[in-house]
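quick one, 140 residues, struct below
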Amino acid sequence: MIADFLTNRKILLGDDDPDARILMTDSLLQLEPTLEIQQSVNGEEVIQHLETTEPDLLILDLRMPVLDGFETLEIMLKRGLGEYVPILVLTAYGHQDIVAEAVELGADAFQEKPITTLELQSKVRALLRIRYRYEILRGH
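---
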């Protein structure tokens, strides 16, 4: 049933800012209390996580230490990690060239920071709905 597309979903949140992670986690759990939010503080941790499990959604900050979001997306693309995982990229710099590069590397949606609760919840709802429909097509 389409109404269940949010229930028990796993979201990987990659952002080095602890305050942003707390705010986003709170906003996501307001949207759906059954969401499982996993956190990574840099791109290397995101890659390590994706090598062992596939979340239903990746929220990725483009400016992080160790591996930034662009480098993370590039590695994901080269290694075939998260091929079917919708990706929402976040950045404080919303220039068109940054958006274009992120989309070229596999991002599905883009949002400038700071992000409001409504913006985050709306984008997450839309991307998880897409993920759900894809799973139906795949027969899962």
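The helical segments are 18-31, 43-52, 69-79, 96-104, 117-138.
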